[in-house]
From TrEMBL:
This is Cell adhesion molecule 3. Residues 142-160 have a biased composition (Basic and acidic residues). Belongs to the nectin family. The chain crosses the membrane at residues 305-332. The lineage of its organism: Eukaryota, Metazoa, Chordata, Craniata, Vertebrata. Its main location: membrane. GO terms for cellular component: presynaptic membrane. Residues 138-162 are annotated as: Disordered. It is a single-pass type I membrane protein. It comes from Trichechus manatus latirostris (Florida manatee). PANTHER family: CELL ADHESION MOLECULE 3, IG-LIKE DOMAIN-CONTAINING PROTEIN. Keywords: Disulfide bond, Immunoglobulin domain, Membrane, Repeat, Signal, Transmembrane, Transmembrane helix. SUPFAM superfamilies: Immunoglobulin.
Length: 374
């Protein structure tokens, strides 16, 4: 019984992507002096031990020992799918099966249904299709980084009876923000092993213009030159600009230029101005209130000179004040300090306000003294 189990070969199922290479390994513990053999699903012998039996250069011997026979099949086709048999010709003959599954790689998807250009608030439907997948692939949609929820993927078997063609559609309403957006259809399939296989469609959306008035300079003053820029945006870009001033008839200017120019501002130019930007999709009007400020004061050269001189004088006065403060502190600390030098042998004490130093005359038995005042 143990000998029978040891003589039983074993192998494993394999999955390979079409065009790839698959290895088929067969092993046995006790070969009983017999060689291992590999056969294809049509029961054609591929290898018997080291001997090639089928003339197919895609099939190569990898390893042949009494306990193992391993072969490889390169450039695998969908037709290679099926059950391969490993046999050992003992009594009785023992076999093991290996199911080879070949994955069909889906083709690059194709997007259809786009009609250019679209108009703002239109609804559009796009279609995506990919063929050649096995098993059937799944399709997904994105607009930029945003996921779009399309219809569930539909699968239809191809004429070869092995692969599938899959399709999906997505419908959404476009806005002006979608102008220039990229719609992507991607195929998800195990054969791709995480690789990207997708197709993109850029869409164009026509929408009414917007406008905004920008002054240059931003804070206009009397006597200056002023430009009012009418910044129009849209698809298509506005080609005509109409300038008006409230209370003024007729309109100021009808032009293809965006700017209204004031060569020399006056107070009378103050007021509310309107700019209407127009394209073949419509028009939009923007407003700006102009308040002309008084002219900027221009400093004269003489006042600048006086300001510099005044600053220097102030700095000198500051230094003099610092010196006077230090001198005052010094005098306070030394006020009432006297130097007294007594003549030799005198016992008289010095007066608080007078220093006596060797004054002449005056006392009995006395020495000559001199008096100095400090």
């Amino acid at each position: 019984m143990l000998a029978s189990q040891d003589s039983q070969p074993w192998t494993s199922d394999e999955t390979v992507v079409a065009g790839g290479t698959v290895e088929l390994q067969c092993q046995v513990k006790d070969h009983e002096d017999s060689s291992l053999q590999w056969s294809n699903p049509a029961q054609q012998t591929l290898y018997f031990g080291e001997k090639r039996a089928l003339r197919d250069n895609r099939i190569q011997l990898v390893r042949s020992t009494p306990q193992e026979l391993t072969i490889s099949i390169s450039n695998v086709a969908l037709a290679d799918e099926g059950e391969y048999t490993c046999s050992i010709f003992t009594m009785p003959v023992r076999t093991a099966k290996s199911l080879v599954t070949v994955l069909g790689i889906p083709q690059k998807p194709i997007i259809s249904g786009y009609k250019s250009p679209l108009r703002e608030k239109d609804h559009t439907t796009l279609y995506c299709q990919s063929s050649g997948s096995k098993p059937a692939a799944q399709l997904s949609w994105k607009k930029g980084e945003q996921e779009l929820h399309g219809e569930p993927t539909r699968a239809q078997e191809d004429p070869n009876g092995k692969t599938f063609t899959v399709s999906s559609s997505v419908t959404f309403q476009v806005t002006r923000e979608d102008d220039g957006a990229i719609i992507v259809c991607s195929v998800n399939h195990e054969s791709l092993q995480g690789a990207d296989r997708s197709t993109s469609q850029r869409i164009e959306v026509l929408y009414t213009p917007t406008a905004m008035i920008r002054p240059d300079p931003p804070h206009p003053r009397e006597g200056q030159k002023l430009l009012l820029h009418c910044e129009g945006h849209g698809n298509p870009v506005p080609k005509q600009y109409l300038w008006e001033k409230e209370g003024s008839v007729p309109p100021l200017k009808m032009t293809q230029e965006r700017a209204l120019i004031f060569p020399f501002l006056n107070k009378s130019d103050s007021g509310t101005y309107g700019c209407t930007a127009t394209s073949n999709m419509g028009s939009h009007k923007a407003y700006y209130t102009l308040n002309v400020n008084d002219p900027s004061p221009v400093p004269s050269s003489s006042s600048t000179y006086h300001a510099i001189i005044g600053g220097i004088v102030a700095f000198i006065v500051f230094l003099l004040l610092i010196l006077l403060i230090f001198l005052g502190h010094y005098l306070i600390r030394h006020k009432g300090t006297y130097l007294t030098h007594e003549a030799k042998g005198s016992d008289d004490a010095p007066d608080a306000d007078t220093a006596i130093i060797n004054a002449e005359g005056g006392q009995s038995g006395g020495d000559d003294k001199k008096e100095y005042f400090i």
